[in-house]
């Protein structure tokens, strides 16, 4: 493997242990219940690893912001209903965030939930698709580009274009932070993990009598797993290197989910 590509096994193991132990509400949970409410807790029940990845994205942004004397500019790809947006906004009291999502129903919900940060001048929204929004930004203009569970939705050739634009838009020493479905390179292991994931969907959502949500998640999973969408970890890391990134690191592996960070030097 390219020496600039690393997999942090310790962080992966520690994250798995932490997730297994974290059965009681945390201050992070309390913050989200007061702002995002039902959506956050439904996500935690359906896909607890997804909620954890949103938290880890915010934690990584917080580490980037530490000891910086000037406010950090962050662009979020695929803001959705605002779960990861809130995690990012909570990372530092000075950062500004541009949240991009071309799904108006979800973005309208985020606008309603996060109005406080809009009023403070820290949060703006774009309704463009990710590639178009990035193309509208100038070279070397953003400190951090962050995302959770967005890139894996992209068709492979579109994703490659997005990665090139992310690199162009980031300032030197800027960072790309992504919590997402990074498919296991061991296909058999990935299949077993996905089967367990689907079983979890059925257990939770049939218990909640939310067959409508179950249908949506199963249909969406077929897209995630399709040949022109699936984001295999080794190839995804290599694509970041090909785009020009350095210090590429995959950590906090939780089944098919992982946190990836990369730096524009």
* Total strand segments: 8
Mean of the pLDDT scores? 88
Percent strand equals 15-25%
Q: What is the molecular shape?
A: globular
> What class do helices, strands and sheet pairing give?
alpha/beta
The helix content, as a percent range, equals: 40-55%
Task: Tell me the name of the CATH class.
Answer: Alpha Beta
Could you tell me the radius of gyration in angstroms? 18 Å
Quick rundown:
This protein is of the alpha/beta class. Helices cover 52% and strands 20% of the residues.
Q: What report would you give on this structure?
A:
The protein is α/β, with parallel strands linked by helices. It has one domain (5-182, 235-263): Rossmann fold (3-Layer(aba) Sandwich), CATH 3.40.50.150. The chain is 52% helix and 20% strand. It has helices spanning 9-21, 27-35, 38-46, 48-65, 83-89, 104-113, 115-119, 130-135, 156-169, 187-207, 211-225, 233-243; strands at residues 5-8, 73-77, 96-100, 123-126, 142-148, 170-181, 246-254, 257-263. Strands 1-7-8-6-5-2-3-4 form an eight-stranded mixed β-sheet. α9 links the parallel β5 and β6. The chain starts with a strand and ends with a strand.
